[in-house]
Amino acid sequence: MIRVSVSAFLLVGSLFLHVGWSLCPDQCQCDDFNLKSDCSDAKLDIVPLFLNPRIRHLEFHRNQIKHLEGALNVYADLETLDLSHNEFHSLGQRQFESLVKLHQLNLSNNFVSSLHVNTFEGPTALQTLDLSHNILSTINPDTFAGLEALVELRLSFNKIKEFPLGAFNGLSRLRVLHLDHNLIETVDSMWMIHLENLRFFYLSHNQIKTLEDESFRPLSALRVLSVVHNQISNISQSAFRGLRSLDTIDLSFNQLNRVPNSALSALQQLQKLYMSGNPIIQVSEYQKNIYFINILHRRFIQ
Length: 302
Known about the structure:
This protein is mainly beta. It contains 3 helices and 14 strands. The chain is elongated and about 70 Å long.
């Protein structure tokens, strides 16, 4: 069996691009009319370099790719890229630098444990980034600083305990943030400073026990907050201060033994409150009429 080194493979691929040729591996489905290539479940261990260089949509779902080796630089017109369910432990530095038209990037279900500050340098048009189902334990300051167009960020199903100041720098347009199924113990408004346009915030299935004063203060545009399946037993009277747009909050399946009336009174736009699965001792008829929607029957926001 002939073995070809990675460098030789890259050289051959670059020659194909130089003369304007493109090939489609047998395991892939290539559509040059719609500029799509689907290499899902193709048992690839590298990103092929000889696909149509004008490709806009690439699917590498469920392969065995461990490294990018600069291969994406030849596909500068990419708009969507799916690298989920591969074997990445590291994403390296500046591997997406040339993808200035990229809108969607799926990196879920890998083994990524950390991110470089310049991992996402380059794709300034990116709107959706999925890093769920990895093993991230923290997010370094300025990791997403260049993603000023990002609208949705998924960090669910990782091992994140806390966020340093500046973790979300640059994400002033972010609308949806998924932090569910992590190990978060405290909610600190300091790392939310740049999320003033956030609309949907999912913090379910973490280890939060208390919501302190002004925990969500910077999130003035927030509409939906879910903290389902935590260990919350105490909510400060000023915990929700600043959430002037919040209309839906889900506190279900926590350890609350009473309705946090004082904290909820600050939510002038509140329309829906879910508190099923809490050990509520007593609920007055007034509270039922004013606050409760579906206290006995679970209804999911997410």
